[in-house]
Amino acid sequence: MVIKMQLLKDVMSYDVQVVSPEATLQQAATQMRDTDCGMLPVGENDRMIGAVTDRDIAVRAVAEGKGGDTLVREVMSEDVIWCYEDDTVETGADMMSRLQVRRLPVVNREKRLVGIVALGDFAVSADDIQPSADALVGISQPQT
């Protein structure tokens, strides 16, 4: 019996929205609302240079008294964490668990952004729900 490993490219979302680092937080939040997403990769000169999440906007901006005209560059995370499209679902779930994140940008071998994988993608698409369950347990652990 041959068991086919499910790859991230089999479960990820290909419709990736990117925001400019020069966009305002209001523009980023509007883009998140309109596309029903909680994380946007930040792109500049055809490269991913960071990511901004709804949590970044709430914690790094609003909680610090910054307004909607604040630039994405000021609150984005610069250490972009990503995985390859040909990584297995288990690899992606393990990475999410270890890093305690719910979404990961997905790149091809030329390191070009090709998709986003979210915890929910594992639950909806994977035949085996164990990777999703393992990731959820890891993500939900308090940070030390």
Strand order of the largest sheet: 3-4-5
What is the C-level CATH assignment? Alpha Beta
Which structural class is indicated by helix and strand composition?
A: alpha+beta
Gyration radius (Cα, Å) is: 16 Å
Helix count, DSSP H or I runs of 4 or more residues: 6
**Averaged pLDDT:** 86
Question: Which superfamily, in CATH terms, is the homologous superfamily?
Answer: CBS-domain
How can the largest sheet be summarized? 3 strands, mixed
Quick rundown:
The protein is of the alpha+beta class and 144 residues long. Helix content is 36%, strand content 18%.
Account of the protein in words:
This protein is an alpha+beta fold and 144 residues long. The protein has one domain: CBS-domain (Roll). It is built from 6 helices and 5 strands, in the order H-H-E-E-H-E-H-E-E-H-H. The strands form 2 sheets. A 3-stranded mixed sheet has the order 3-4-5. Strands 1-2 form a two-stranded antiparallel sheet. Helix 4 (89-99) packs parallel to helix 6 (130-140) and helix 5 (119-125) packs antiparallel against helix 6 (130-140). The longest helix is centred in the first third of the chain and has 11 residues, at 25-35. The radius of gyration is 16 Å and the shape is elongated. The protein starts with 7 loop residues before the first helix and ends with a helix. The model has no long low-confidence stretch (mean pLDDT 86).
